[in-house]
Amino acid sequence: MRWVTRIGVRFDRTACAWFIKRFLDSEAEFDFLTADEMPAAIRAGAQAYHNYSWTGRAEDLPEDRINFPALIAKYGYDKSDPALPLMAASVRQAERTGFAKDGSENYSLWAIANGISVMVNGDDAAITERMMPIYDALYAYCRLRSEGGTGWTTG
């Protein structure tokens, strides 16, 4: 199925796409559209996966701007998989602290590294290998911050 959302994704919508791909539709294809392109895509059968995208109205956007927990709940996974509400809380916190730009956005690195350790059963070489792109990304972010940027460059 074709899934669509507005251009300019952040933590929330990347987490939504992850959930869709892992739990709902392993063959999902994602398109990132302007607000003007969204209605036609939906009429053509695409599924919007960000609440604001469904209506285009700011009043339909959740107060905290986080849709990942709502998507999990919509499909009942908040009740059937206890890891997903925990992940949703992490995504919510990452979204909030990411906007803070006060250093608290880096706390998620601990959770990521520990998750990788679990994924590879504590294999040091595998942890080191899988952390390389994470550190590449963190370094790019820190360079951006040191140059006065705030993050999330979007095409």
How does this structure look, described?
Helices cover 57% and strands 8% of the residues. It contains eight helices and three strands. The chain has helices at 11-24, 38-43, 51-55, 68-74, 77-80, 83-100, 108-119, 124-146, and strands at 2-6, 29-33, 47-48. Strands 2-1-3 form a three-stranded parallel sheet.
**Span between N and C termini?**
24 Å
Query: Largest sheet, order of strands side by side?
Result: 2-1-3
Helix/strand order, N-terminal first: EHEHEHHHHHH
The count of β-strands is 3
Instruction: Please compute the radius of gyration using only Cα atoms.
Output: 17 Å
Quaternary structure annotation: single chain
Number of helices: 8
Estimated share of beta-strand residues: 5-15%
Q: What's the main sheet like?
A: 3 strands, parallel
The tally of domains stands at: 2
Q: On the 0-100 scale, what is the average pLDDT?
A: 82
Which regions contain 5 or more consecutive residues with pLDDT less than 50? none
Structural class: mainly alpha
The shape, in one word, is globular
Helix content: 55-70%
Q: How would you sum up this structure in a few lines?
A:
The protein is mainly alpha-helical and 155 residues long. It is built from 8 helices and 3 strands.
